[in-house]
Amino acid sequence: MPLALLPWPAEVETRPGALRLDITAPHEALPLAQHRAVDGPPEGYRLLVDAHGVRIEAADDAGAFYARHTLAQLVGRDDEGFFAPFVDIRDAPRFAYRGIMLDVARHFHSVATIERLIERAAELKFNALHLHLTDDQAWRLALENHPELAERGSSTSIGGDPGGHYGRDDVRRIVAHAAAHHMTVVPEIDLPGHTHAVGLSHPEFAADPVLTPSVLEVVEEFGGGIPVPGEPYTGLAVGFSSLEAGAAGLEGFLREVFAEVAGLFPGPYLHLGGDEALGTDRADYRAIVDMAVRAVAATGRTPAAWHEAGAADLPEGAVYQYWGFVTPSEEHAELARRALVRGGRFVLSPADAIYLDMKYDADTRAGLAWANGPTSVRRSYEWDPAAVIEVPEERILGVEAALWTETIADEETLERMVFPRIASAAEAAWSRPLGSAEREWESFRARLAGLGPAWERAGIRFTRSPEIPWL
């Protein structure tokens, strides 16, 4: 059994012997580490365990933080107690951005649930939490300058399940907890589609629903009824809603919203959505996205958007989040090429690999299967960020696993959908390219099996996929 390290470090040298630890739980090993600041890549570190103890060298606090989590993964136990094997690890991330997205619009999830997700993602060296705060089903963020958005738009969830929203104190708590774990929170206000909830309080900004055959098919399969202007929507259909480009006051409204969002979330990115605006005229789409980009620019933040925004005019350096398949359609590939020409950077979230709400197999209780059918753990692992869309690796900002919550209403279901496939995304974001040294399936499945007992001790309710030889 190899060292149960996830994600796999850049360089690992193992040596005979082990350091005995006078502790009663694995994480108690962390205070033993002696930390020395050195020059090196951001978030990188060296972890040395030998007969003299544990030593960490890191260029920044994040590197030391990740080194300690690597140490915690190394800790084993035998009849004599806890120990750490002698190793010399030199490590740094492949990509600067390593994110997980949580959709809190389709189903509301508590601050405590979000905090636990932050903690567990940080242990796998993720450094960004993307919160999908608004959609057709709800507007989850309370704003002082527009309290009506949450007051009217957050009362329910898909299927009529309970709703909820986050106040300013909730946001401060989430942001602070993320910062303590070296994670940045990226807020998303989705537009011009996915905006039915906006129309509950601002009908003057909302176009009439566009009921395409695909919308009607989803209603037929999943229920939820036809979307009705002015009434909360609790179904699963997408692509029917839009803001009205010519609505008086829309740009001022967007400026007020994004200004307050920027004040609540101190990170460098504001995500403006831009996806699945199927009911929006193409000229109107560009006009509304341009309004949103100007609103984000006024805050001094970098705009991020789903890759469909390649059809609009985002500024150089903007971030495009690709959610198409590992093998892109020509339409999605063309949008990526247009974004590349405009100087865009990319976050990779291929739906048929690291959309964590996809079923593991046909028998999975929760989840959907529209992204090329169920996504096994192996399929979630066997892809490489640089091989998805034709862009230079230096223009790839990073990788983000996404959890949409149409079918995920509680924390146990959330955990079972996230774990273990989150580890696939962690390794794609941090480690070397697929096929390099330990970055291959057989090594991964063995190391993942070795991490299972630690997840059990932490109380994580993970899916015991038969693909993994769990210990």
From TrEMBL:
It is an enzyme of class 3 (hydrolase). It holds the Pfam family Glyco_hydro_20. Keywords: Glycosidase, Hydrolase. GO terms for molecular function: beta-N-acetylhexosaminidase activity. GO terms for cellular component: membrane. One of its GO terms (biological process) is carbohydrate metabolic process. It catalyses: Hydrolysis of terminal non-reducing N-acetyl-D-hexosamine residues in N-acetyl-beta-D-hexosaminides. The active site is at 276 (proton donor). Residues 27-92 form the Beta-hexosaminidase bacterial type N-terminal domain. Its EC number is 3.2.1.52. Residues 95-277, 290-432 form the Glycoside hydrolase family 20 catalytic domain. InterPro entries: Beta_hexosaminidase_sua/sub (IPR025705), GH (IPR017853), Glyco_hydro_20_cat (IPR015883), Hex-like_dom2 (IPR029018), HEX_bac_N (IPR015882). PANTHER family: BETA-HEXOSAMINIDASE (PTHR22600), BETA-N-ACETYLHEXOSAMINIDASE (PTHR22600:SF57). Belongs to the glycosyl hydrolase 20 family. This is beta-N-acetylhexosaminidase. It comes from Microbacterium sorbitolivorans. The lineage of its organism: Bacteria, Bacillati, Actinomycetota, Actinomycetes, Micrococcales.
